[in-house]
Amino acid sequence: MSSSKLRAVLGFLVSPGAPALGLYLINLCFVSRDEALLAGVILATLGYAAAVIIGMPAYLFMLKKSPVGLRSYLMVGGLIGLLFYLLFFGVWALVSYQSAPEHAIALIRNSVAAGLTAIGYASIASGTFWLIAIRKNIPI
Predict the structure, then answer these.
(1) Is-contact 78 118, C-beta < 8 A?
(2) Which of 44, 73, 105, 116 is most buried, by CB atoms within 10 Å?
(3) Which has the closest alpha carbon to 125: 58, 80, 66, 63?
(4) Is 20 exposed, middle or buried (CB count within 10 Å of its CB: 0-12, 13-18, 19+)?
(5) Which pLDDT does position 65 carry in this prediction?
(6) HSE on the CB side for 28, CA within 13 Å?
(7) Dist. CA 38–CA 24, nearest whole Å
(8) Mean pLDDT score of the chain, rounded to an integer?
(9) Can you give the pLDDT at residue 86?
(10) Rounded CA gap, 45 and 91, in Å?
(11) Do 11 and 132 contact (CB within 8 A), yes or no?
(12) Which residues, 6 or more positions from 31, have their beta carbon under 8 angstroms from its beta carbon?
């Protein structure tokens, strides 16, 4: 296996979990250890799912382009987070929602923070991936 493929594999193994670890450590200051661990495990699970479902095809597409910098990876990561959030929330909402329309509007309004979390999480994971797998002599 070439070193670039090895770095890509290592990037896909490490980067989806890195933001979850950071959030776990931050949450330890505010909530109990069990709650912080549960939140970290949930976010890491969703992060790895997004990396497999959307991140790998995006990486393969970006390989076809000329060398891509950190800003591009951060933007694509944010889009991956938004897309995964919309797919996850949209599928869940369409399949299981059975309440009044007023409740649907309140649910969407309250879920904006979760969408922003997904965007930020995926951007950080994508930036971490870039640092591990892509960065060589590419300018930031």
Answers:
(1) no
(2) 73
(3) 80
(4) buried
(5) 76
(6) 7
(7) 9
(8) 86
(9) 86
(10) 17
(11) yes
(12) 39
Tokens of 27: 């949450």
Q: Which residues of the chain have pLDDT under 70?
A: 67, 93-99, 101, 104, 137-140
pLDDT at 20: 95
CB 4 within 8 A of CB 63: no
**HEC per residue, the chain:** CCHHHHHHHHHHHHCCCHHHHHHHHHHCCCCCHHHHHHHHHHHHHHHHHHHHHHHHHHHHHHHHCCCCCHHHHHHHHHHHHHHHHHHHHHHHHHHHCCCCHHHHHHHHHHCHHHHHHHHHHHHHHHHHHHHHHHCCCCCC
Amino acid at 45: T
